[in-house]
Every structure is written in structure tokens, then in C-alpha cells.
Amino acid sequence: MSEDAGRPTMHDVARVAGVSHATVSRVVNGHTNVAPATAQAVADAIITTGYVPNRAARSLRIRATGTVILVARENVDVFYTEPTLSPMASGANLRLSEHGYQMLLALVDSPRSEEHVGSLIAGGSFDAAILVAMTNEDPLIARLMATNIPLVTASTPFPGSDVPSVDTDNVGGARAITERLVASGRSRIVAIGGPSWAPVTRLRLDGFHQGAKNAAIAHTTVTGWTLGCGERAMSELLERYPDLDGVVAASDLLATGAIRVLNKAGRQVPQDVSVVGFDDAPVAALNDPPLSTVRGDARATGAALADMAVAQIRGQNLPQRHLVLPNDVIWRESA
Question: Which one, out of 27, 52, 295, 296, has a CA that is 20 to 30 A from the CA of 6?
Fold first, then answer.
């Protein structure tokens, strides 16, 4: 690391990546005439060194576009029905409009769309990018971290990274609803976590184990956030632990799938088994019985993401680089 105020520089990145300073500069400034393997080496070196591109210098070189892109790694059918993504985008759009920016929405659902959207952002087509529903160690974020484009993510796909983030309190919410489940008398509780590729899965499972303590007997993860995934996970857990008396699911749809399986097995909810979810999706209140869950404010999350993006565009310091918003336990008949 250079001795200039203790901050890493492009020269440090070049040394770690084993490339020239000019190559690092091309990657950081979004040029496409760099081999993918080289660009990845530079991205890895930026993470290793902790290098932060100079936003003020960028603003002098690149003309502002007045637009911010919100990118979701999701297909169109899920995006508009998922309980948090659409409200989050709405909140971001409203706040960006207040700041005088136009928001554009891009859904990444294939390698081709990822490459196209990544090239547009890295090439300076937008003043900033808001990245939501990304996967753990997402390659799109890794690529954009090697540029000097202002970024902000919902949750933290790269734990320990310097990319600003905003999210609901996944750990605290899961811990609080699990503690309440234990306090209701449940002593053999299992958890149905989300997909292993989702950053929130680890956080919600951490909260579950903190809240359940000795009452936790098992947890599992699923391949997606669907009703069918919840059914399959519940079937497997019920076969292995037939005397379980509580289920903590990482989403309301997973919890609904779990309740279906329990009903078919003759296990009454909540008399025999209590079930809780997360997100307070519309299905939660409509479920039979109505589902206990954790309610966050997706619109507020979107607004906070927009505020962080605009602050970086304007070269302002962020009071918090990783903002965690509070949520509430909604206790209903399922528990």
C-alpha cells in the first residue's frame, strides 16, 4: 500500500493484479478493450487492496447524464409479483425524481442481458447504479467495482466490501420472531432458509439461530423462493424430525408451502406446529391461518438506496456506508 495518507492507489492495484497502471485505468474508466480475465484480475485486486476510485475526478472527466439505473437480477414475472422488489423500485424512483434524476429499470435474467447492462453502466451511460436482488459474489457487481461508477446495493453480496448498501434488518427481524416463537412454548424448531446464492439467506439463518438457541434442531436451504421449494423443504424436514413443533421460514411463500405440507400430514397449524415467515407479502394475511411474519418497509429501502446513490454522484460523504433499516414482527394466528 502506498504511503499517501495510507490510501491504496491505482499503482497498488496494478502491482497486485500484475498489470500496468494504464490497464487498471482502462478498467476503472469502463473501457471495453480489456480481456475479461484481465478485468477480473483488476476487480479482484481492487477488493484485495481496498482501492476506492476518486469520484470527484470522475465528475470532471465524464459529463453527467441525469439518469440512475436500477438493476435487478430477476425475471419480469417475478419482479412485479415479488413483495419487496417492485415497492423498492417505486421508492427509489420517487426519491430520485425529488433529487432531479430520472430512474431507468433493467432486469438481468440471462448472461446476455448481464453483459449488455454491465457494458452500458461501465461505459458511463448512467451517473450511478442501484443493484438489487444480486447473488453472493455477483459477477456483475465484481465487474462494476473495478470501475469508478457510483454503486449502491440492497444487502451486501460482497461482505466486507466498501460498496454502500441498504437493507432491512434481516438478522434482527429473524431473531425477534424466532424469540417470540420460543416464548410461546415451542422447543423443537426448524428453519427453512432461502437459496444459498441469496445474501439474505445467511443473515436470516443467523437470526434464527440467535433467537432459537437450544430450541433449534435443524435448518435447510432451498433452490428458490417458490411455493414448491417450501413444500419440498418441509416434506424433508418433517420426515427427518416428525416431532418438530415450530417452523421459521425465510419468506412468506416458503412458509405457505410448509403449511400446505403440514396440513396434508395431519399436523394442525398452530395447534401442533407454529409457522412464521418473513416479508409480510399479501399471501401472509390471506393464508389459512393468517401467517405471522416480519414486515419491513421496501419503499423506505428504495428511497435510502436513491439517497446513497445521489450522495455519491455529488461527491458527498456518506454518514453510514451500510445502512440497516428496522422492521416489525407481525404476530398472527399461524403461531
Answer: 27
Full 3-state SS string of 216-234: EEEEEEECCCCHHHHHHHH
HEC per residue, 24-89:
HHHHHCCCCCCCHHHHHHHHHHHHHHCCCCCHHHHHHHCCCCCEEEEEECCCHHHHCCCCCHHHHH
Run of H or E including 300: helix 298-313
Q: What pLDDT is recorded for position 4?
A: 45
State pLDDT tens for residues 152-165. Answer: 999 877 777 789 99
Q: Report the SS3 class of residue 137.
A: coil
> Which pLDDT band holds residue 30 (cuts at 50, 70, 90)?
low
What is residue 294's three-state secondary structure? Answer: strand
Written as one letter, the residue type at 9 is T
